[in-house]
Amino acid sequence: MDWQVLENPERLYKEFRFRDFREALAFADRVGALAEEKGHHPRLTVEWGRVTVEWWTHTKGGVTERDREMARLTDGLYVP
After folding, report:
1. Nearest Cα residue to 28 out of 12, 40, 45, 3
2. How many Cβ atoms sit within 10 Å of the Cβ of residue 12?
3. Per-residue pLDDT of the chain (80 residues; tens, 9 = 90+)
4. Rounded (5°) CA angle 71-73-74
5. How far is the C-alpha of 57 from the C-alpha of 75, rounded, in Å?
6. How far is CA 56 from CA 11, 44, 72, 79, in A?
7. Any residues with CB less than 8 A from the CB of 41 and at least 6 apart, and which?
8. β-bridge partners, 60
9. Contact yes or no for 54/12 (Cβ under 8 A)
10. Are 68 and 80 in contact (CB under 8 A)?
């Protein structure tokens, strides 16, 4: 898994690139639907041609196996 681990709080971080804002927004929508389905929600930042996704479990103060699974599922939603 090629996600970065950032600190304060500990979290998984990855940047996804797209050709334009429309594709970036569509990806963010797919991640949002996954989050709703699984009941676990990331920090999403949507910009022109880029979406950053951060997963961590607030109640645990960092990254858990659930976050790693959500990161793997997020990778599966990415269609460059």
Report:
1. 45
2. 21
3. 799 999 999 999 999 999 999 999 999 999 999 999 999 999 999 999 999 999 999 888 899 999 999 999 999 999 88
4. 60
5. 18
6. 5, 12, 13, 23
7. 35
8. none
9. yes
10. no
* Residue 71 · residue 1 · CB < 8 Å: yes
List CB contacts of 35: < 8 A, sequence separation 6 or more.
41, 42, 70
How is residue 70 written in tokens? 């959500």
Side chain identity, residue 15? E
- The DSSP annotation for 35-77 comes to HHHHT---EEEEETTEEEEEE-BGGGTB--HHHHHHHHHHHHH
Instruction: List the CATH code of the domain at 4-77.
Output: 3.30.1360.20
